[in-house]
Amino acid sequence: VVQLNASGAVSYQWSPSSGLSNAFIANPIANPASDVTYFLTAIDQYGCSLFDSVSITVFAPPLSVVTNADTIICKGSVVLLQVNQSGTVSWLPSDNLSCSNCLQPLAAPDSTTTYVVSVTDINECFAGTDSVTIEIDTNCNENLTPSAIIPTAFSPNLDGNNDFFNVLGNGITNYQLDVYNRWGELVFTTNTQDAGWDGTYNGEQQEVGVYIWHLEGSMPDGTIVNKNGSVTLIR
Prior knowledge:
The chain is mainly β and 235 residues long. The protein has no helices and 18 strands.
């Protein structure tokens, strides 16, 4: 619904009257079934006629939001989450997701987690929410193929979504993650996979841009991990 607004006159008449709560007031509520242009005729205190119009575009109702069915995985496994439509997307909680505002994030939860996705469609209409529960099977074989997911962007703006840059998944030992700015200066280092970079260096927020990371470690089978890449800091 939309509220129409007019002022500066003593009488008002909107046409057509269909879809209006009252065609003879300044601020009727409009709830048209299809695209429409409402024409206003108003008369001021001197008896002069005033004219104006407003057009309303009616979009089709958005599709219901649907994401994955609930699933059970072993700890250390990765699940591709999906949603059935495009638009502005938000996944909560953002913990252990490769991204929290994309259509298909990768999830590697370390405990049973219910992710809720909210979607606003391309017409800026709220489409709704859906949820998926990823249950961790504690009876899985512990000798799982290890995995690591490294996000390509994060937004450390303290909104609770994607505030840290860290490696998702598990199975890496002798872990070492270093992050460098564009001048080659080390701005973050950790040997604990649970610790993520919050976008600061010496207590100061770092500028928006691309940062280089270097990951080292080893897999249970003895395979050496030695990877480089980049991550974009956005706010």
